[in-house]
Amino acid sequence: MLKNIINRFYKKYKYFQRKHLNFIGKFGLESNEYYIVSFPKSGNTWMRIILSNILSIEKGSHVFLKEIQSFVPDSHIPSQIEVAGKSGSVFNGLKFKFVKSHNPYSDFFKGKNIIYIVRDGRDVLNSYYHYLNARREEKVKMLDLITQSNQFGFGSWNTHIKSWHNGVHGKFIQLRYEDLLKDTEIEMKKLLKFIDFEVSEDVLKLAIENSTFKKLSSLENKKGVAYNDKLKDKSSKFFRKGTSGDWKTSFSHEDLEQFMIENADAMKLCGYDSIMDNK
Questions:
Q1: Is residue 183 a part of any domain in this protein?
Q2: Over the stretch 198-228, which tens digit does the pLDDT of each residue have?
Q3: How far apart are CA 216 and CA 130, in angstroms?
Q4: pLDDT tens for residues 226-266?
Q5: What is the CATH number of the domain that holds 222?
Q6: In a 10 Å sphere around its CB, with 0-12 CB exposed, 13-18 middle and 19+ buried, how is residue 156 labelled?
Q7: Could you tell me which of 242, 270, 224, 268 has the C-alpha nearest to residue 126?
Q8: Would residue 92 count as lying in a domain?
Q9: Residue 269 covered by a domain
Q10: Which of the chain's ends, N or C, has fewer CB atoms near its CB within 10 Å?
Q11: What is the domain range of residue 82?
């Protein structure tokens, strides 16, 4: 009896795994298909929300964290890809299609269309530092996080950046989180022009307005914190600050020195100032 249940479960798992791999394996090769790639905590979710709002406005809806999976599914969550691949899904009816990934470059992405988002690695690790410590009884130290950033599960920040800069892509555009913060409309227009996605001024402005940090933070207060059950610190928010340069509140001089030792190559590749700023 138990053996039969296990066999059925395994067959079902393998079936969904094949469907998942078949979908993401082919995705990104058509002119209207793009992977949105970034190292974790670099603005991927924010970009997904902006694009989802653009795609959803014609349907009269306003998306938040739960709704974006219908418009921009996460390649790391098979259930989202399964729904996206179904006939009649919201995703299949979209003129342009986007799928999220945090993976470093590999031959899997060879020739595929990529929107790559980068963020100052110091702010990336600072964001992850707060994310982890809101979910752990035993707090992680910044210096330990800097020297072990590969614990994200996607390699180190430095390796991730270099892998994508050395990759062989289809269409490829890199956007910086800091530039998106400074002038979201200009950066989104640059992106939309690059992928040949015509969006009216009114739709773009409304989508951006619905995706501001203030609006998202307000929605989080109303709808609750995502994955609240995993939080040890119940005051923690997914949309914590949405700024750049906040690393200075967490990094010691020693932390900064070690970060630059580990990540100088990637900082230079992304065009970030590599001068050792004082805290």
A1: yes
A2: 999 999 999 999 888 787 776 666 655 454 4
A3: 18
A4: 544 444 444 444 555 567 899 998 899 999 999 999 999 99
A5: 3.40.50.300
A6: buried
A7: 242
A8: yes
A9: no
A10: N
A11: 2-117+154-237
Mean pLDDT, the chain, as a whole number? 83
Both structure tokens of 52: 């989802």
Chain position carrying tokens 């974790």: 40
Whole-number Cα distances in Å, 104 to 45, 53, 107, 152, 173: 17, 27, 10, 12, 15
How many structural domains is the chain composed of? 1
The pTM of the full predicted model, rounded to 2 decimals, is 0.84
Stretch among 6-10, 81-85, 89-93, 119-123 having the lowest mean pLDDT: 6-10
